[in-house]
Every structure is written in structure tokens, then in C-alpha cells.
Amino acid sequence: MFLSFPLYLPIFLLLLISFPTTSVTPTNQQLSYTMQASEAETLFTIMETISSDRKWRASHPDPCKPGSTWHGLVCKPGKTDNQFHVFRLDFGSPPNPTCKNTAKFPSQIFELPFLQSVFFFNCFTHATTSISFPPNKTSTSSLQQLSLISNPSLIGPIPPQISSLKSLQILTLSQNRLNRGIPTDLFSLNSLVHLDLSYNMLTGIIPFQMGNLKNLVGLDLSYNFLTGTIPSTIGHLALLQKLDLSSNSFIGRIPDTIENLQTLVFIALSNNRFRGEFPRGLTKLVNLQYFIMDDNPMFINLATEFGHLVKLQELRLANSGYSGSIPSSFSQLKNLSTLSLQSNRLSGEIPAGLSTLPHIYHLNLSRNLLGGVIPFNSSFLKRLGKNLDLSGNSGLCLNPSEAYGVKIGANVCETSKNGSLVLPLKNSQSPCMLCQSSRLWFGTLCALVLHCILFSG
Ligand SMILES: *[C@@H]1O[C@H](CO)[C@@H](O)[C@H](O)[C@H]1NC(C)=O
Ligand SMILES: *[C@@H]1O[C@H](CO)[C@@H](O)[C@H](O)[C@H]1NC(C)=O
Ligand SMILES: *[C@@H]1O[C@H](CO)[C@@H](O)[C@H](O)[C@H]1NC(C)=O
Ligand SMILES: *[C@@H]1O[C@H](CO)[C@@H](O)[C@H](O)[C@H]1NC(C)=O
Ligand SMILES: *[C@@H]1O[C@H](CO)[C@@H](O)[C@H](O)[C@H]1NC(C)=O
Question: What SUPFAM superfamilies does the record point to (predicted)?
């Protein structure tokens, strides 16, 4: 017995830890829901800074007590103490507390040590205010998610002190009026999983330190005034699934290191000043479903390699100066639903294989230099309907046998003396301009007219 006592000691201690002084431990009903006075005071200060919906102190003297919280406040018990703590705060649109016109950004949110998520949606709309941090304090914040969305009077820079939020996993600062450069310190937040700074007025470059964000799954910097090249360190973001850099002023090539991002599903680079060749390892991006890169001064041929990205659902390369022909390899993209190649300088014939794409739904080849007989039959033309646009290619013509009752903005071919289909000599869109808006009977009439024209000469 005596000898075995030490064996029981650890279990005894364990019991002590798990059920400390059972007689004093309150049951669920008895738990004291009071907060630390300092934490409650910080919470009330934040509420009074933001919202005049209520007299917060008077109406909620014990704000974390179950049944006493308001929509937009979530409290949870601390793991190491018996007190409740502010865990999540939401502001903006009802039922969450609404923001008064004089609301200013409350830097006190970074002084709530247990706060994990903060949302300000459509909150700072009148008085200009900036993101700020408490002065001269080493941050004890355990914030994991900070979302400031659609706050038109939130201006100024992203302060470098943002790097003190070491636990941050989701940082969404979208649709505000933040300006200046992205602070380099931000890229020390290597817990970040999602970074969204879209729709602001940010300037400057993306620093090479972006490669530190090795846990990043989503990166959205679209709709800012960012410049410079994509740093080659982007290749270190091995978990990245979504990359959106649209509508900035980025220059240069897409770096070759992008081939390392083999989990990439979505890439959008539209409306920048990218130019030059596509990255050599493009074919390695086997998980890509969306490649969206309209409106760049590329002025090269289209890359045959796109044909290897068999998961592609959308391929958008409009208005970017591409020349040469449409690679026939595009016909291998069996999951493609949208192909946008309009407003380039593409020439040659439309690859017949495009008509075999089973899911194609939106096909815009308008405003190019394409020629020859359109390789689509009437069932294909009807299936796509107005989502097929071949207009503005003066060299294209449609086989008359497929032309009844369809509108695709192209001429109908004529049959030459030797029996091959050729572009009409005169720009004879006129008979079928009428059928374009017509029903089938009118189309038949037009075909008769066409027949007369063809065989009267
Ligand atoms: C913060 O520190 C600076 C110098 O590091 C000092 O000038 C300033 O007074 C301090 N502010 C507060 C509020 O303590
Ligand atoms: C095509 O899409 C379907 C459904 O979205 C998916 O099940 C299939 O795996 C995809 N095919 C390829 C080659 O990715
Ligand atoms: C139209 O073309 C598609 C693909 O080329 C083909 O599968 C289909 O059978 C054709 N339909 C008709 C009515 O010829
Ligand atoms: C095709 O692109 C042109 C030029 O951008 C645009 O005007 C037209 O509406 C598009 N057509 C379709 C069917 O999307
Ligand atoms: C038929 O004539 C056209 C010109 O009218 C010509 O371009 C084409 O090569 C000819 N085709 C054959 C098979 O002779």
C-alpha cells in the first residue's frame, strides 16, 4: 500500500488539476460570468467609439453573461481562468451594432487579449479615420481574423505595426481607401492563410519578402495602383490556390517560378501591363481551372501549352495583342466553358476541334483577323446562341447549310464554281442581316433569296 502510493500520486495530481477544489468550482449555473474589469472597460470604450445604438454600459452591465450579450459580440470562457472573454466582435450592418457617423477606428481592439475575430463591414462611412495601433505597447493580441470591408472613409496607410498580430490568419482589408505602399513588415506574418487588400488605392511594389508567406492559400491585391514586377519569390507560396493581381499597373513577364504553384486553381492578371512570353513551366500548373488575363500588352503568339491545362474551365486572353493562329491544342480542354480571345490579331482558321468541347458555353472570338469557313454546325450554333461571338472577323463565313435562323455576326459563304465554300465577293451580309432577327420561316425565305442570288449569275 505504502509503496504503491507514489504510483497514485500523479493521478491524484491530475484529479486536482482537472477538478480543482471541487467544493469551490462553480457548476455551469454557478459560473461567475464577470469579466476582468479592464477587459470590460476596453470593450465599452470600443462600443462607445463606434456605435450609439444603445447606452452600452447601462444596458449591458455584464456584457459576456449568457443572454446579456448583443448580436455581434461573442464571448467564450478562458481556457486557463474561469472568466469569460471577448472572442469576436462584428460591426456594420444590422443585426450587428451599426456605426455612428463619427465612428473612428478603435485601436483598443488590439488590446483585447482573447479577441480572435473582428469584422467592420460598411462601418466607417463619414468621418475619415485610419487603422491605428495602441501607442508603445507590445501587442498581446491573439487576433486570427481582421476584416475591414467596404469602409469608404477608412484612409491612410496600412501601418507596419500590423506585423505585431502574429496569430493573424485572415487579413481582409477590401474596398476601403487605404493608400501608400504595402508595408514590408506585413510579409512577416507567416501564419497568414488569406490576404485580401483588393479595391484600395495602394501604390508601390510587392516586396520580395512576399515569399515568406508560406501558408498563404489566397492572395488578392486586385484593383489598386501597384507597380513593378511579380517577385520571383512568389514561387515559395507552395499552397497558393487563388492569385488575383488584376487591375493594377504590374509590368514584365509572369515569373518562371510560378511553375512551383502546383496547387493554383485561379489566377487573374487582367488589366495590367504584363508583356512578353508566358512562363516556361506553364504546363505544370495542372490544377488551374481559371486563367484570366485580358487587357495586357502581350503582343506574342498564344501558347500551345494552355492545351495541357485540362482542368481549365475559363481561359480569358482578350484584348492583348496576340497574333498567329488559335492553337488546335485548345481543343483538348474538355472542361472549358468560357474561351475569350476577342480583340486580338489572331489569324488563320478556327480550329475545328473547338466544336467538340462538350461544356463550352461562352465563346468570344470577335474582333480578330480569323478567316475561312466557320467549323460549327447548326446544333452547336444553337446551343451557344448569343454566347457565341464571331463578329468583326471579315474573313470568316458560315456554311449556308448551317446558317438558318442563327445569329453569329458573320457572312454566309458562297459556293464557288469549283464547289468549295468561299467568302462572298461583295459584302453581302444584307440578305441574312434580315434573317438574324427572324424565326425559322424567315430564314427559309432568306435561303430561297440566297438561292436565287447564287444561281442567277
Ligand atoms: C512612446 O514612446 C516615445 C519614444 O519612444 C515617446 O516619445 C512617447 O512619449 C511615448 N508615448 C506614450 C504614450 O507613452
Ligand atoms: C471536369 O469537371 C468535372 C466537374 O466539374 C470534374 O469532375 C472533372 O474531374 C473535370 N475534369 C478534369 C479533366 O479536370
Ligand atoms: C455537330 O457537331 C458536333 C461536334 O462536332 C457533333 O458531335 C454533332 O453530331 C454535330 N451535329 C449535327 C446535327 O451534325
Ligand atoms: C465579345 O467581346 C466583345 C468585345 O469585348 C464584346 O463587345 C461582346 O459583347 C462580346 N460578346 C459576347 C457574346 O460576349
Ligand atoms: C476553288 O476556287 C477557289 C477560288 O474561287 C480557290 O481559292 C480554291 O483553291 C479552289 N479549290 C479547289 C479545290 O480547286
Answer: L domain-like
Grid coordinates of 216: 498563404
Q: Report phi then psi at 147, rounded to 5.
A: -125, 115
Note the pLDDT tens digit of each residue in 166-196.
999 999 999 999 999 999 999 999 999 999 9
Helix (H, G, I), strand (E, B) or coil at 87: strand
**DSSP string computed for 251-293:** EEPPPGGGGG-TT--EEE--SSEE-SPPPTTGGG-TT--EEE-
Question: Measured from the CB, is residue 377 less than 6 Å from ligand 3?
Answer: yes
What is the residue whose three cell numbers read 442570288?
Answer: 453
User: Residue 224 burial (CB < 10 Å; 0-12/13-18/19+)?
Assistant: buried
For residues 259 and 281, give the distance between their C-alpha atoms in angstroms, rounded to a whole number. 5
Q: Is 300 in the pocket of ligand 5 (CB under 6 A)?
A: no
Other residues' Cβ atoms within 10 Å of the Cβ of residue 330: 20
Whole-structure pTM value: 0.84
Reference 108, options 73, 134, 143; nearest CA is 134
Ligand 1 atom closest to the CA of 136, numbered from 1: 1
CA of 407 to the centre of ligand 4 (A): 14
**Phi and psi angles of residue 366, each rounded to the nearest 5 degrees, phi first:** -70, 160
267 pLDDT above the threshold of 80: yes
Residue 110 neighbours by CB under 8 Å, 6+ apart: 133, 134, 139, 141, 143, 164, 165
Q: What is the rounded average pLDDT for all residues in the chain?
A: 86
Rounded Cα gap, residues 147 and 46, in angstroms: 16
The domains located in the chain, with CATH, are 31-156 (3.80.10)
Q: Which of 413, 420, 421, 454 to mutate to test the pocket of ligand 5 (most atoms within 8 A of CB)?
A: 420
Nearest alpha-carbon partner for 120 in 180, 68, 172? 172
Q: What is the CA radius of gyration of the chain?
A: 31
Rounded CA separation 92/74 (Å): 15
pLDDT in tens, 80-100: 788 899 999 999 988 999 999
How far away, in angstroms, is 164 Cα from ligand 1 center? 18
Which of 142, 140, 146 is closest to 159 using CA atoms? 146
